């Protein structure tokens, strides 16, 4: 039953978070949804793509991922689902559709690090707010109570709580820092080259839809490393960062 519900998600369009879009983009969003539901997937993809520069929305990325899935362009679908997860990391429907698309592309999902596992429990902005509030709250609890003569277990307990929450939020932010380096090969021409030039010898190729961590950039090339320790310079025409 669970598997069946996950599969339903890949064919459905999310209307639950349309409110994220501003008024001047809602017309194109609805038009794209109508094209999708009519089976005009290429037109729907074009319309969703026009929305991205205007409004970074998990709804748009998610629906665009579904559209590319229907077009059997699995690498681009994976990229869009990853972008949607960057904005809505706790959404189980997006994560399920990403997994199904990776399976369709015959890719083995990369195991996340423990810091990344912690990070995706909440949005990056939530972690940032927790870190700020607990840091200054803990500082205030250390500095101010002696001035007022406030002592006791309640104060100590609040300080410990602030320290623990600050530590966890720091782990979450570190995880997001790692996730921010993620990129996806969107073509079978994603060659790993020895140097950042088009004439450089090719060491090997990334699989379409394969993820890699961006280490640095030079001109039109990214130096990337995969979980299997494959590394090299890849042309940005064939490899796209998730966080851009």
Automatic annotation (TrEMBL):
Residues of the signal peptide: 1-31
TPR repeat intervals: 58-91
Domain of life per record: Bacteria
Matching Pfam families: TPR_1
Cross-referenced SMART domains: TPR
Record InterPro entries: TPR-like_helical_dom_sf, TPR_rpt
TM region(s), chain numbering: 126-144, 156-176
UniProt KW keywords: Membrane, Signal, TPR repeat, Transmembrane, Transmembrane helix
Protein name: Tetratricopeptide repeat protein
Organism: Rubellicoccus peritrichatus
Source organism phylogeny: Bacteria, Pseudomonadati, Verrucomicrobiota, Opitutia, Puniceicoccales
């Amino acid at each position: 039953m669970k598997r069946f519900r996950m599969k339903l998600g890949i064919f459905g369009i999310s209307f639950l978070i349309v409110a994220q879009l501003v008024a001047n983009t809602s017309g194109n969003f609805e038009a794209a949804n109508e094209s999708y539901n009519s089976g005009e997937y290429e037109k729907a993809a074009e319309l969703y793509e026009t929305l991205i520069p205007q409004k970074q929305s998990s709804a748009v990325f998610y629906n665009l991922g579904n559209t590319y899935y229907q077009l059997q362009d699995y690498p681009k679908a994976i990229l869009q689902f990853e972008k949607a997860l960057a904005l809505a990391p706790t959404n189980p429907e997006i994560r399920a559709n990403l997994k199904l698309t990776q399976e369709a592309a015959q890719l083995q999902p990369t195991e996340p690090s423990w810091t990344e596992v912690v990070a995706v429990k909440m949005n990056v902005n939530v972690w940032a707010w927790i870190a700020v509030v607990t840091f200054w709250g803990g500082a205030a609890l250390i500095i101010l109570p002696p001035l007022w003569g406030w002592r006791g277990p309640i104060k100590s307990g609040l300080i410990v709580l602030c320290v623990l929450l600050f530590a966890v939020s720091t782990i979450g932010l570190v995880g997001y820092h790692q996730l921010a380096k993620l990129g996806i090969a969107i073509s079978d021409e994603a060659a790993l080259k020895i140097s950042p030039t088009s004439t450089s010898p090719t060491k090997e190729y990334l699989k379409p839809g394969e993820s890699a961590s961006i280490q640095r950039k030079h001109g039109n090339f990214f130096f990337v490393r995969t979980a299997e320790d494959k590394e090299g310079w890849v042309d940005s025409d064939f490899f796209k960062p998730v966080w851009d």
